[in-house]
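Lay summary. Proteins are chains of building blocks that fold into shapes, and those shapes determine what they do. In this project we predict the shape from the chain. Here is one chain we studied, written as its sequence of building blocks.
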Amino acid sequence: MLARKPALMLVLVLASTTACRSKPSAGSGGTNAAPGTSASAEPAPESPAVPPEEVQRAVNPGNEKPYSGPIGTVNGTVRVSGDPAPELTSVLAKIPPGRCDDARAFYGKLFREGPNRELGDVLVGVTGYKGFVPARAPGKLVKARGCAFESRTIAMTFGQQLEVLNKGPETFIPELVGAHQAALLVAVPGGDPVKLFPTQVGQFKLVDRSHEFAKADVFVLKYPTVAVTGLDGKFSIDGIPAGEVSVTAYLPATGQQASQHVTITAGETASVDLTIPFAAAKPAPSASAGPR
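And here is the predicted shape, written in a compact code that computers can read:
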């Protein structure tokens, strides 16, 4: 019989991380790197990802076999209610007109919403199931273009590497705040992804040193049953063990959340729509007050 463990919890931990070196791609001259490569400002020794035993202690302490029982899917739409998102005038002042106009729409307000109040950049997690579900890929790919990252929220599983791929014409210099980098890493247009390595479960900040307004909240979690909404507010999470679970939507920009219990049935899709309230006059709670 499949081993069981206590229900997983959606833990958004605010914590500083221990030192971890990233592996820079070939090159030592920043933006002078040849097309098709990435570069670092100075040479740095190769560094591995987090040791497998550390990952296992965090995400699978019971050393369970991967869950192989009945699974289902949950999808839905997240919307916002209440006041509209206020403009961030201090951020808008940093965004140059013309070449970074897309970034003004992306970062110019407290949060992004669609025409029918669909909410973008929401972290949606499914927790409470029994069984160990491993990550499906070794890395989490994030694309950058137009002076912006593709999302203001990034979700990944502990043990995965964060890969930043430059799809635009300008240089990006990504940095994962909270995870020490041994060298300055440069993602050149058309080059290989820059690889960053979170060293523990927790919350980090992805920034671009060439565009100070470009930022994303990075959540490194103990489980892979997560998704992040686009501007249409939609999410879909599959491979969920059958049974009772909780679906929680969390908006990092405001610290607000909404959740609902649902039953996952084998081979079926459960539909869950959630609404996150926002009141402009109400102070936002600290990020540590997020869903657990």
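What the prediction tells us: The first helix runs from residue 52 to 59.
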